[in-house]
Amino acid sequence: MTDNALVRVEQLTRRYGELRAVDAVGFTLERGQVLGVLGPNGAGKSTTMRMLAGILAPDAGRIVIDGVDLLDQPRQAKRRIGYLPEQPPLYRELTVDEQLRYSARLHGLGRVASRQAVARVKERCGLMDVGRRVIDNLSKGYRQRVGIAQAILHEPPVIILDEPTVGLDPIQAREMRRLIRDLGPAHGVMLSTHLLAEVQATCTHVQIMRAGRLVYASALAELERRRQSTCLRIGLKTPPPVADLARLPGVEQVEEFDAGRFRLRHAPGAALQRVVIEQARTHDWELWELTPEHAGLEQIFVELTLARETAE
User: Fold this and answer.
1) What pTM was computed for the model?
2) 243: domain CATH number?
3) Quick one: which H or E segment has residue 288?
4) pLDDT for 125-145, tens place per residue?
C-alpha cells in the first residue's frame, strides 16, 4: 500500500445463499481520489459500500482503512470513515443544528470541539442559512447535505457515499457533485452510482462492477482515452468503389449508409483523415463530409461488460 493509500480491499466476498453478491473484489483508494463505483442495479455496489462502512460483514477478504484492519479493529477503523447511505439516517423532527450537535456527541466530540465542528461543516456543506429549520421541512437536496455534514463532522480521511444524488433534481444534483469534488483533495472519497454522467462529472477514478465482480478499474482520464475515434464518417459526391475505400491504409471495415456516405472503421491512432483528404483531392471524389466518431461512455461500458461475458 502506498503512502497515500487510505483504503485497501483484498478478495472481498459476500454471499446470499448461492448468490455471490460481491465476488473477490480488490482495489485501493488514495488520498485526493474521488472513486466512482459504476454498474447497473444489482451489480453489488451497495453491498460493497456497506461492507466498507462496517455495516455488513464480508464472508471473505480483507479491508484496511487508513492502515487499520476493519475486521480486526472495527472501532478504530470506523472512526476513520464517514458514511452516507442512500437514505440519510436523520431524525426529521430535529432541526439541522440539533441533528449535527447530536451526531457530534455520537462521534465523541467535546462541547467546544462539537461547536467548532458543527460550524465548520455547516459552512462547508452550504447549511448556514438552515440551521434552525426542521429537517422534515427541508428539500431532499438539503437533507442530503445534512447527511454529508454529519458524516464528515469528525474529519474522517475516508468518505463513502452510496448513490448520493439519487432522487435529486438537476440543480440539486449539480450542487451535490460540486460538494463531492470539493471534498476530494483532502480525503479519499468513494461513491456508488448507476449513472455514467455522474462519474464523468464528479470522479477522478472509476471502477465498473457487474454481477458482483470488478470488470474494469482505472483513472477517469484513461477511460476517456478509450473514447478516441476509431470511426470516420465521410461524404463523397463522386465516390469510388467500396473496395477502393477498404484498401486505404488503416481501414478495417467500410459501411455504406446511402449514396456517397460511408463509415470507415479504422485502427486506433490511424491518420485516416489525412489519407482521405489526400485521396479525395487526387481522385476528385469531391469530399463534403469528414466527421470522426467518438465512443460514448455508455458504449464503452457496454463493450467492457460484453468483453467480460465473452471471456467467461
Assistant:
1) 0.76
2) 3.30.70
3) strand 287-293
4) 999 999 999 999 999 999 999
